[in-house]
Amino acid sequence: MQYDRKMKIGLFVPCYVDALYPEVGVATYKLLRSLGVGVEYPESQTCCGQPMGNAGFQNMADNLAQKYDELFSTYEYVVAPSASCAAYVRFFHPHILNHECAAAKKTLDLVEFLHDVLKVDHLPSKFPHKVSLHNSCHGVRELGLSSPSERNVPRFNKIRDLLNLVEGITILEPERVDECCGFGGMFSVEEPAVSTRMGTEKLKRHMATGAEYITGPDSSCLMHMQGIAKKQNLPIKFIHVAEILSAGL
Amino acid sequence: MSTKHSIAAEKFLQNGERVTRHDQTFWSVRTKRDTLAYELDEWENLREAADKIKKHTVTHLADYLEQFEQNATRNGGIVHWAKDAEEYNQIVLKILRQHEVKKVVKSKSMLTEECHLNDHLFKQGIDVVETDLGERILQLMELAPSHIVMPAIHITREQVAECFRQKGIIAEHGTHAAEGILPTGEDPNQSSDPTFLTRAARYHLRDNFMTAECGMTGANFGIAETGDIVVCTNEGNADMSTSVPKLHIVSMGIEKLIPNYEAMGVFQRLLARHGTGQATTVYTSHFRGPRPGGEMHIILVDNGRSSILGNEEHWQTLKCMRCGACMNTCPVYRRTGGYSYTYFIPGPIGINLGMLKNADENYHNLSACSLCCSCDNVCPVKVDLSTQIYRWRQNLDGMHHADAMKKAMSKGMKVIFEHPNLYTSSLKFAPLVNAMPKCLTGIKLNGWTYGHEMPVFAKKSFHEIWKKQLRSESV
Amino acid sequence: MNFMDTKEHILNSLRKNVRETYDMPELSFKKRTFEDPVKAFIETTITTAGAKLMEIKPDDDINQKIREVYPDARIIASNIPGVEANLNPDTLAEAQELEKTDVGVIKGEVACAENGCVWIPQTMKEKAICFISECLVILVSRKNIVSNMHEAYERIQFNDYGFGTFISGPSKTADIEQSLVYGAQAARGVTIFLTD
């Protein structure tokens, strides 16, 4: 499917995706290109500052927020394959800098961009596997990628809508559909016992669906669960939503 | 580096079965709440209304308090004002002394916990009997509540039975309580049947209701327009406490006021649905004056609330109606229990209230949050609990309570992230970390290796892939 | 600091600390109503509220109905004219005299379908009858059933006694390991007599 608009977006690949999961960045890039979107990647980008902010050092993130705004403010949209980072930029950068930020306003998670802006309704990808959908907290409750289970609002899930376009996929969801996996940035370091317990439970609920993969829009949650799964030798694989949506491209 | 919460949490988590039980107990309450939420079309309207009513009331609180005092006084009540816990405790003692009270029956009130009233009265030789079953169990066991609505839910039936035996309650009431409940021939001294134990407590508390000279209650709501005090319970203990003794003392935090009955309709529908997942508490009692021949005293307690109103970042905690829903949904509270927190109110609201009360003592609780934001979405009055926790964390450095390791890590990140060249060269060398022996990466560098394997750095970062491959094709 | 000082201190502190004021909202959103509130009330009462319910016809004998529901009751307390009672809460010197009451018979004024609440204004000298009785019979007219608590709060009335309570079924607790037990401190059983 081609989009007739000549749209150019700025690609933001958060630091840990850059270093640990570059394939997620590549998948995002390929997917966007296949949809006819022009993609630029400002090379001096680094991090949105969330790790410091959540740890209590938002003031150390001011230059990063400023830099981000300078790098990305000229694009029509900024797309990041990481719900939590997109949310941090959009909702916290204006507070950190104490003014409206042109780039922050236009920053979207990949799922939002595909679902709400491009309104993708067809994909050529195939993924003949059972996946359990991980609804990351900041995706659910900050970006509104799905309806939070706490609220009485019409049920929706944008990630599921997109995955449904993939041929052969079986989408499952765990019990306690959007309970936190216990990552929380430095929370996992400062409260390791409860973080590990939350992650272990989350893994068990994902695995109880019978899925081969856990997938989600946020590699940080996946990284956390993967770290625990490895330590406990649990037979489950992890894959970012972007990789499924671009499978076969 | 570890906070008191994280240390206590690790200890609590060592008993996996207990954690499972604790988590499932409160998750089931959350689930019941959800069921009620989904079946009520106006659910979100009610939350929005509650939020706005509370914002309106607390920003007009002085006027409403005056209106309340006028009406309550006209109704025959006696209104007192206490600026802090000390003054509050003195007022209670004075009233009790005037009436020569030796025993008080008391229904659950978080305000009295906040002010340490019971200890104060015990020291003065006045007996205070908690009448909520959970609170009574804790009082007999000399423990503090571990949840504000279900205070003793962490205690097992066997522990309750043992406590009742030790305190002579089974010896005194066991035979009577066993009638029609335990199979004939079963020894009441051996039973830990919850119905039997509840019945034994019923008779034990009956004796106290009959002989106490004063009943004390908290207040779920005060209504400015009518002067009503509204108390909601399931057990009926607030009503028993105030139907037999002639003296009724109400303790109310000033933020519990709402304007009128129209508002009351909103809050009555929200309180139990959120707190326990019931459509209503069994009793919603309106006290509009003393009982015939009796006296009703209402003590309006500030104890820091009026200054919270001036706190730009945290004033909205004053909207809280103490339903406990944020604890029930909190994934950290459910798995670490109430005693892991340093403040007597645990969970998301307790983290914030504790900081407002005494930051130096309670900053330890700020680590007990993964910023999942579930609490924000269950809160019936829309307190922005997780955002407030985030804000407190920003202030810790200024309070000299910042964690040294986290600060060092953040500083390191700042240096690297602010220098793209440094960043990209670290990316190049990062994969070397993969080859480092576990004993080096797993040292106390961080808590990550407690439950995780280290993530593996990619051979080529996205940066590199971009430069070498994607950049040229993107043009 | 004396009493007046404290009050002024608190009020001044509140007035000084208000940063921005908010208006009272309109509560005009649509509230849940039932097509047949009577049917809904009956359903809620016998399920979630955990009470019993009897529909009383105009020529039914109330006293016989009470005996039907509570055949073992020895001490009945009530001040309702026509109810045969051993104790009258209006004429007792002390509330303690109601302690052994098996069945208290009282009157409700408004009933709410969504949660089984019945509004019971104090109409007797000793309101202890509403709580101390082992079991309660609450008389309420089907004409006074409303759908939700907003409607209930529009209707409730107070008298000089200055007390009223919504009761929804028997006293309950789940404080011991969350197992639900009826009859914590107050009535162990409640029967609603639904009259015309």
Task: Annotate the secondary structure layout.
The complex is a heterotrimer of chains A (249), B (475) and C (196).
Chain A: E1 8-11, H1 15-20, H2 22-34, E2 38-40, H3 50-55, H4 62-72, E3 77-80, H5 83-97, H6 102-105, E4 107-109, H7 110-117, E5 130-133, H8 137-143, H9 158-163, E6 170-172, H10 187-190, H11 192-207, E7 213-216, H12 219-231, E8 237-240, H13 241-245
Parallel strand pairs in A: 1-2, 1-3, 3-4, 5-6, 5-7, 7-8
Helix pairs in contact in A: 5-8, 11-12
Chain B: H1 4-13, H2 16-39, H3 43-58, H4 61-74, E1 78-82, H5 85-98, E2 103-106, H6 110-114, H7 117-123, E3 127-130, H8 133-141, H9 157-166, H10 169-178, H11 194-211, E4 214-217, E5 221-223, E6 228-233, H12 237-243, E7 247-253, E8 257-258, H13 261-275, E9 283-287, E10 295-301, H14 305-308, H15 325-329, H16 331-336, H17 347-357, H18 359-362, H19 374-378, H20 385-395, H21 404-418, H22 420-429, H23 431-435, H24 438-441, H25 462-474
Chain C: H1 3-17, H2 37-46, E1 52-55, H3 62-69, E2 76-78, E3 103-107, E4 110-112, E5 118-121, H4 129-132, E6 135-141, E7 145-146, H5 149-155, E8 163-167, E9 172-173, E10 181-182, E11 189-195
Parallel strand pairs in C: 1-11, 2-3, 3-6, 4-7, 6-11
Antiparallel strand pairs in C: 4-5, 5-8, 9-10
Task: Describe what this molecule looks like in 3D.
The complex is a heterotrimer of chains A (249), B (475) and C (196). Chain A is α/β, with parallel strands linked by helices. Chain A has helices at 15-20, 22-34, 50-55, 62-72, 83-97, 102-105, 110-117, 137-143, 158-163, 187-190, 192-207, 219-231, 241-245, and strands at residues 8-11, 38-40, 77-80, 107-109, 130-133, 170-172, 213-216, 237-240. In chain A, helix 11 packs across helix 12 (219-231). The longest helix of chain A is centred in the C-terminal third of the chain and has 16 residues, at 192-207. With 475 residues, chain B is an alpha/beta fold. Chain B has three domains: 4-29 and 312-395, Fumarate Reductase Iron-sulfur Protein, Chain B, domain 2, CATH 1.10.1060; 60-155 and 213-301, Rossmann fold (3-Layer(aba) Sandwich); 420-474, no CATH class. Chain B has 25 helices and ten strands. Chain B has helices at residues 4-13, 16-39, 43-58, 61-74, 85-98, 110-114, 117-123, 133-141, 157-166, 169-178, 194-211, 237-243, 261-275, 305-308, 325-329, 331-336, 347-357, 359-362, 374-378, 385-395, 404-418, 420-429, 431-435, 438-441, 462-474; strands at 78-82, 103-106, 127-130, 214-217, 221-223, 228-233, 247-253, 257-258, 283-287, 295-301. In chain C, strand 9 and strand 10 form a beta hairpin. With 196 residues, chain C is α/β, with parallel strands linked by helices. In chain C, strands 1-11-6-3-2 form a five-stranded parallel sheet. A four-stranded mixed sheet of chain C has the order 7-4-5-8. Chain C has a two-stranded antiparallel sheet with strand order 9-10. Chain C has a single domain (31-195), classed as Rossmann fold (3-Layer(aba) Sandwich), CATH 3.40.50. Chains in contact: A-B, B-C. The interface between B and C is large, with 91 and 76 residues. Strand 9 of chain B pairs antiparallel with strand 8 of chain C.
